[in-house]
From TrEMBL:
Gene Ontology BP terms: glucan catabolic process
Keyword Electron transport belongs to the record: no
Cited SUPFAM superfamilies: (Trans)glycosidases, Beta-D-glucan exohydrolase, C-terminal domain
Source species taxonomy: Bacteria, Bacillati, Chloroflexota, Ktedonobacteria, Ktedonobacterales
Hydrolase listed as a keyword: yes
Protein family membership: Belongs to the glycosyl hydrolase 3 family.
InterPro entries reported for this sequence: Cellulose_Degrad_GH3, Fn3-like, GH, Glyco_hydro_3_C, Glyco_hydro_3_C_sf, Glyco_hydro_3_N, Glyco_hydro_3_N_sf, Ig-like_fold
Record field: transmembrane: none
Protein known as: Glycoside hydrolase family 3 domain protein
Pfam families per record: Fn3-like, Glyco_hydro_3, Glyco_hydro_3_C
Keywords: Hydrolase
Domain (Fibronectin type III-like): residue spans on this chain: 683-752
Species this chain originates from: Ktedonobacter racemifer DSM 44963
An example molecular function term from Gene Ontology annotations: beta-glucosidase activity
């Protein structure tokens, strides 16, 4: 018997897709557009291949989350994947392999996987190379257990800190997000998807700028802002990396639910931005067209709207696709060609991943790829590089003469508070707590027992207290929790005061608690009208500051907080976003001076929630308030600006040197940066630009590029940014994407507000029209 063309690895990818598609029945095609929970194949704590065969008689496109839905160790997880795959390959007519998808925002969401800093923490490094390394570890661990699709990175532009999912993002700026998102996708997908994991850019589009900062809330954005700001990170990652998949936003934009909008998922995503991969639904998003947005009356209609819009796969289960779509086709309301187009994309991805040649993994060795010393070292480095020194009067690094330290605060010795909402095991709480709580069981996935049962399984986590004790074995370190993250209990204040009386210095770690189930302070669905530290933590800081003992405060939280009072009372203030398993070591490395801090804010920290939204890329006129120049109760400036972060050393910037001919050619902008202090350290050199006179209001300060450079004391380096004119393009009054000739001001500095050198020049020439998918990234050369 001859081998079917679709099984011939020497045939072209297109030939294999078209041949397989030609053999498929309608039921088999629709099955490829759907998904089932991995846990639905488990009965009484035992995997049941007969249950798999019963549920997927025609195959299935994807299987939802083994790692993030069970308590399996890597070896068991890989064996589970192999067993599911075996049924799909051997007990369906065409033997089309399945894809297992997983979460991977701050590390692979799987038992025993490395817990890296949450997305916002990775963004605080401003280090694309580090992000690529982190994604490489995620790729290796996912490959080891056979998971080939990651629902990451989050490319939402986060400019409203009330929104609970800011911690999952790379911050507020589209250029920073695009650079770090591209770095993540390169590390995850690799140069060849046969050795990689398909990445997912999410959530398309505008999800983070909802009314009231509310999850799933409606979004009101004009077409220019939607493209220039919110679509730009997606455009960057698509053009830089060949992004494999995109996930829709739950929100509606100007009344158009993204899940069912051809204008957004086809017109903008595919036609304007050039995306050619698979669009997958955020969980239950298709159903929401019916019961949330109310633009569909039935499941079939919801499925039809989504598929016609360009949404290829329904996750996490078959709800509106499958039989409801089949009924729409049979009634003549949906053309089979629309189904074929989506199936074609799904099959193309499966062939790209090499699943037809290598559907199984070696479960016997899967565990060897988890919790290696090298991975933990990388996680520690990521924490240290992400730690942001906001203020410092000289109390840091900790002096070698210090003999006694009082470590205080709810975040000081609680491994749970090192977790982000999509870290394992914080993400598991919605599963294992549902087993004891009938009210939340309806929100959870199917429950499992035995080895499959989820639970509060932590990798070895290092808290700040443990990190300091390991770093300073000869120092007497006392600890008091002081108070909880939430609640009004102050009974721990006396213990805190008692140990402070004997201390040379206080290290207070205040915190948030990220998660999906309440009580938490931040995370998906946990939005807030207040940005203050929660519970009695502000009162604890007041109490400690009143003792007169030098006070160092570290804020460990996924929320962007208003910290004016804390900043005024602390001798040093640090920001640490959910840091993961090596959080304590990484923070201790910075406190002790082993690592010179160089984290930079990927978001703006406001003085008050009343300033929201406030961010660095605001359009002309946003930097001033007419008549009096301020609010009646506050300056208009942020407490800490985008890009801010201090060091233990000092850096001097030279004059700008700019070489350009006209608007049609690249612009070379050079500057020398010297370490003028006593410590080696990293500086994040940031390039901003302004179109001085444009046909629409443009941002006063637009990030164009950045570079994190390492300098020894006395060392000087020249940093040269090359800016392509397309990087200056915008949508004009006629919605043409153009670069206009005229005057441009280029600024280089240590933050968006700390500008060290600036120069204006005239760039003559014709108006140039581009497409957004043609924008060329700014490049950096360091001599």
């Amino acid at each position: 018997m001859s081998t079917p063309s679709y099984r011939d690895p020497h045939a072209s990818l297109e030939e294999r897709v078209e041949h397989l598609l030609s053999l498929m029945t309608l039921d088999e095609k629709l099955a490829q557009l759907g998904c089932l929970w991995s846990t639905s194949f488990v009965r009484a704590g035992t995997f049941d291949p007969e249950e798999v065969a019963r549920q997927i008689p025609h195959g299935i496109g994807q299987v939802t989350r083994i790692g993030a839905a069970t308590g399996l160790h890597p070896r068991e997880s890989a064996a589970f994947m192999n067993a599911i795959q075996k049924v799909a390959l051997e007990r369906t007519r065409l033997g089309i392999p399945v894809i297992v998808h997983e979460e991977a925002t701050g590390g692979f969401c799987h038992r025993d996987a490395t817990v890296f800093p949450q997305g916002l923490g990775l963004a605080a490094t401003w280090n694309p190379a580090l992000v690529t390394e982190v994604a490489g570890v995620i790729r290796a661990q996912m490959l080891a257990v056979g998971a080939r699709h990651a629902l990451a990175p989050v490319l939402d532009v986060a400019r409203d800190p009330r929104w609970g999912r800011v911690e999952e993002t790379y911050g507020e700026d589209p250029v920073l997000i695009g650079a770090l998102g591209s770095a993540y996708v390169r590390g995850l997908q690799s140069d060849d998807l046969r050795q990689g994991v398909a990445a997912t850019g999410k959530h398309f589009l505008g999800y983070a700028m909802s009314d009231g900062g509310r999850n799933w809330g409606p979004v009101q954005l004009g077409p220019r802002e939607l493209r220039e700001v919110y679509a730009e990170p997606f455009a960057a990652v698509i053009r830089n990396t060949g992004l494999a998949t995109v996930m829709n936003s739950y929100a509606s934009v100007d009344g158009l639910p993204c899940t069912g909008s051809p204008a957004i998922l086809t017109g903008l995503l595919r036609e304007e931005l050039g995306f050619g991969g698979v669009v997958v639904a955020d969980y239950d998003a298709v159903t929401q067209l019916m019961n949330y947005h109310r633009v569909a009356a039935t499941r079939g209609e919801a499925g039809r709207l989504a598929l016609l819009a360009g949404l290829d796969m329904e996750l996490p289960t078959l709800d509106c696709y499958g039989e409801p779509l089949k009924a729409e086709i049979e009634a003549g309301r949906l053309a089979r060609e629309v189904v074929d187009m989506a199936v074609r994309r799904v099959l193309h991805l499966k062939f790209q991943l090499g699943l037809f040649e290598q559907p199984y993994v070696d479960d016997a060795v899967a565990h060897a790829i988890f919790q290696t010393p090298e991975q933990r070292t990388l996680a520690r480095r990521a924490v240290a590089e992400s730690t942001i020194l906001l203020t410092n009067d000289g109390v840091l690094p900790l002096a070698p003469t210090i003999k006694r330290i009082a470590v205080i605060g709810p975040g000081a010795d609680d491994e749970r508070l090192l977790q982000g909402d999509y870290h394992y095991p914080a993400h598991q709480e919605i599963l294992y707590q549902a087993a004891q709580d009938v009210e939340i069981a309806g929100l959870a996935t199917p429950q499992t027992a035995g080895n499959y049962a989820p639970g509060p399984y932590f990798t070895p986590h290092v808290t700040p207290l443990a990190g300091l004790r390991a770093a300073l074995p000869d120092v007497e370190i006392s600890y008091a929790r002081g108070c909880e993250v939430l609640g009004n209990d102050t009974s721990g204040f006396e213990d805190a005061l008692r140990i402070v009386r004997e201390a040379d210095i206080i290290v207070a770690v205040v915190a948030g608690k990220s998660g999906l189930l309440r009580p938490v302070t931040v995370g998906e669905g946990n939005d807030s009208t207040s940005l203050d530290l929660t519970g009695m933590q502000p009162e604890l800081i007041n109490l400690l500051a009143g003792t007169g003992t030098p006070l160092v405060v570290a804020v460990l939280s996924g929320r962007v907080h208003t910290l004016a009072s804390v900043a005024s009372q602390a001798n040093a203030l640090l920001q640490l976003f959910p840091a993961g398993e090596e959080g304590g070591h990484g923070l201790a490395d910075v406190l002790t001076g082993k690592v010179n801090p160089a984290g930079r804010l990927p978001v703006t920290l406001p003085r008050s929630v009343g300033q929201v939204p406030i961010f660095a890329g605001q359009r002309a006129g946003a930097d001033r308030i007419p008549l009096f120049g301020d609010y009646i109760d506050s300056p208009p400036t942020p407490l800490f600006p985008f890009g801010h972060g201090l060091s233990y050393t000092t850096f001097a910037y030279g004059d700008l040197s700019i070489h350009a001919t006209d608007i049609t050619g690249p612009i070379a902008i050079s500057i020398e940066v010297e370490n003028t202090g006593k410590f080696a350290g990293d500086e994040v050199v940031q390039l901003y630009g302004r179109d001085d006179v444009a046909s629409v209001a443009r941002p006063d300060r637009l990030l164009l590029g950045f570079a994190r450079i390492s300098l020894a004391p006395g060392e000087c380096r020249q940093v040269t940014f090359t800016v392509h004119p397309s990087r200056l393009a915008f949508y004009d009054p006629y919605m043409r994407f153009v670069t206009e000739p005229g005057a441009f001001t280029f600024s280089v500095g240590a933050s968006s507000a700390d500008i060290r050198a600036e120069s204006t020049l005239i760039l003559d020439g014709p108006l140039i029209e581009y497409k957004q998918r043609e924008v060329v990234n700014t490049t950096v050369r360091i001599l």
